[in-house]
Amino acid sequence: MNNSLLIALTLLTFTAVSPLSIAGSVQGSTHAIKMSSFNLSSQKWQNRVLLVFAPSVNNHDYQQQMQLFDQHQNSFINRDLVLVQVLANQSYANGQLIDESSAANLRNRFGVDKENFRVILVGKDGGVKRQDTTPVKAKAIFEQIDAMPMRQQEMQERGRK
Asked: What are the residue boundaries of the structural domains of the chain, listed by start?
């Protein structure tokens, strides 16, 4: 698979995997990818946001967290959950590169230094629903979301129980 196709598929398809493959593709590509800004307030009432802060893709906690999320893309989509990976060098929202100022704003807002690992779940109302300083199982996050009144209403409206 050539790099252009790989990049296109990565950007079009929701991924909850390590951006290692994305970063490798970008570096080996002759095509430039435009970085986007990411504003948490623009997600309010639209999506839940799961922030994963880490020093780098080489961080042990980060790698473990991404493994725990692997194979759960549909569960993220079903719960209107946006995965934002805030790393020291490159950051991603649903697999798409976001600019450094957006990442810095997220670090400042939640008080997370570039050297620290943290997982933060932000609800559709913009409030912090959970914070973890160690990797957390996807199932635990999904169970917490599914217990929220807004999610209960969504499941009823979408015909899922």
From this structure: 3-157
Alpha helices in the chain (DSSP H): 3-12, 20-28, 60-69, 73-78, 100-110, 138-146, 149-157
Backbone angles phi, psi at 98, to 5 degrees: -120, 155
3-157: CATH topology: Glutaredoxin (3.40.30)
CB of 46 within 8 A of CB of 80?
yes
In the numeric block, the tokens 């990565």 are attached to: 10
- Quick check: 146 pLDDT over 60? yes
For 8-67, what is each residue's pLDDT tens digit?
333 333 333 333 333 333 333 334 445 688 989 999 999 999 999 999 999 999 999 999
CB 85 within 8 A of CB 92: yes
